[in-house]
Amino acid sequence: MIIHLATDHAGFELKESVKSYLKNKGYLVTDHGAHEYNSDDDYPDFIFPAAKAVAKDKSSRGIIFGGSGQGEAIAANRIKGVRAIVFYGGNTEIPKLSRLHNDANILSIGARSISFDDLIKVVDVWFNTSFERGRHVRRIQKLDQET
Q: Of 7, 15, 56, 138, which is most buried, counting CB atoms within 10 Å of its CB?
């Protein structure tokens, strides 16, 4: 599975740590940037390419980062075929359900609100949770019809 990563300055440090972790686990990682810290960068410049790559390759997933993850998820969800959810810590059942029921393919991380160790636990569960299919398929098809 290819994992597409993207961030602005707010998530840069966490993205770099997650990238190393994923590579060590044997994942193929494509980093869409930012490739260096720049406090004046704009998240859409990095998020849109990552989201388009995930939408094009249905077997891939994405992890995007920002201060809260909210703006990044909004940007990603503008791309047809993307189902991005925000996670900034707390109830780890939410990301798991996003895979089971929504076939979420991008995890948007609020980097200012979660530690690397807590994020890695969620990432491992999220990558290993499969879409449940069944009645959820028709719901996703309806989403894709409207975008």
A: 7
35 is known as an active-site residue:
no
Q: Whole-prediction pTM value?
A: 0.94
| pLDDT higher than threshold 60 for residue 18 | yes
The Cα 135–Cα 72 span in angstroms is 28
- Under the banding of pLDDT at 50, 70 and 90, the label for residue 133 is confident
User: How high is the pLDDT of residue 146?
Assistant: 62
Catalytic residue among 72, 93, 136, 146: 72
Cα dihedral sign for 18, 20, 22, 25? Answer: negative
| Residue-level pLDDT at 22 | 98
* Closest residue by Cα to residue 13 from 116, 85, 90, 119: 116
Choice among 101, 132, 136, 146 that is catalytic: 101
Instruction: Please state the domain count of the chain.
Output: 1
Q: Domain with 112 in it: what CATH number?
A: 3.40.1400.10
